[in-house]
Amino acid sequence: MRYKRMADHLMEDIRQVKVQPGQKLPSLRQLARVNEVSLTTALNCYRYLEEMGWVRTTSTMS
Questions:
Q1: Tens digit of pLDDT for each residue in 15-49?
Q2: Tally of CB atoms within 10 A around 2
Q3: pTM for the full model?
Q4: What are the domain boundaries of the chain?
Q5: What's the burial of 40, exposed, middle or buried (CB within 10 Å: 0-12/13-18/19+)?
Q6: Do 32 and 41 meet the contact criterion of CB atoms below 8 Å apart?
Q7: How far apart are CA 44 and CA 62, in angstroms?
Q8: Cα–chain-centroid distance for residue 20?
């Protein structure tokens, strides 16, 4: 599945410390645009990473 391949790339970036702990990941729209995928695929990628324990989401809304 495409979102899992995208997640694998992000996990590798995390392993290689290309993404620092606490660093914001690209927005859904930015991730979708860069990878030339739909917003749904980008969302599924982030949800998968969260389920696997690689990322944590935080709410910025008050």
A1: 999 988 888 999 999 999 999 999 999 999 999 99
A2: 13
A3: 0.85
A4: 2-51
A5: exposed
A6: yes
A7: 25
A8: 13
